[in-house]
Amino acid sequence: MSVGMPQGVWLHKFAELVQDYYGHECYHVGSSLHTKDWRDVDVRLILPDDEFTALFGDNEHAGTNRKLAAAVLAWSALAKAMTGLPVDFQIQSVTHANDRHPRSRSALISATSRPR
Fold first, then answer.
1. pLDDT tens across 43-94, in order?
2. How far is 42 from 103, CA to CA, in rounded Å?
3. In this predicted model, what pLDDT tens digit does every residue of 3-13 receive, in sequence order?
4. Is 45 helix (H, G, I), strand (E, B) or coil?
5. Where are the beta strands (DSSP E) in the chain?
6. Cα–Cα distance for residue pair 43/26, rounded to 1 Å
7. CA 50, CA 53: separation in Å to the nearest integer?
8. Contact (Cβ atoms closer than 8 angstroms) between residue 22 and residue 43
């Protein structure tokens, strides 16, 4: 991870909260994973398709799905407050994540993660 040490620790703590709530781990994706020249930290929660649909419906675009928008805005604000980083948090279904964004991912898990 190319983000600073204290921020990286807080990013993992944020991811633990998301995992505790949704039951699935978050992934660090995007340019901040590979380079020091990044503008934001991309974090994705990837849910099984049926779980995503049950929570947010079929619309995967936060610009037109108000329930999804509320969730990602709230989680993004918490991530920024916890880490001090410009976190772009998004929730995606497995199909959306794999079909449209098949880039590398790094699971944000803690060595002290609790079993579910």
1. 999 999 999 999 999 999 999 999 999 999 999 999 999 999 999 999 999 9
2. 12
3. 556 888 899 99
4. strand
5. 26-29, 41-47, 87-93, 106-108
6. 7
7. 5
8. no
